[in-house]
Amino acid sequence: MEKFKKVIKKQRIILFIVLILALIKWFIIDFVSVTGKSMTHTVENHQIMIGMKMFYSINRLDVVAVKGEDNQLSIKRIIGLPGDKVEYRQNTLYINNSRIEEPYLDGYKQGEEFSTSDFMIERVPDNHYFILGDNRRDSLDSRHLGFIHEKNIILKSIFLYGY
Prior knowledge:
Blueprint: H1 2-27, E1 29-33, E2 48-52, E3 63-67, E4 73-80, E5 86-89, E6 92-95, E7 98-100, H2 106-109, E8 119-121, E9 128-132, H3 142-145, E10 148-149, E11 153-161
Antiparallel strand pairs: 1-2, 2-11, 3-4, 3-11, 4-9, 5-6, 5-8, 6-7, 9-10
């Protein structure tokens, strides 16, 4: 009988751990497999992004998973926050007329393949964000899709795992 009680106790502990992990997966943390090359040099094809589902604030330059109209998730970088003026001039980012450093592009900017066409956004609307992929020449982002509503930002990256 004592042996049976130990087995039941172990099963309860395992069930409790599985339940806690499932709750964390469903409500707090999720995983996204990266496909494509829109974030090349920062997030490579086939890497796994682990992200927070809730309880986070969205900050400029965060890497996020965005749900598109086709319900597919894509990985992009937050560039413009609600109310921001966003401008790209001669491969340099300006937010509200202030130059913004993009250290994640430093090695990439040295090559000829890097080029961001000049553009200017007068104001990012309330509850929306302006996103760009780090691979600026090959990214389907706000330059093409427009502003992203905050409800379509599904995860905020907390860890990247490559394989």
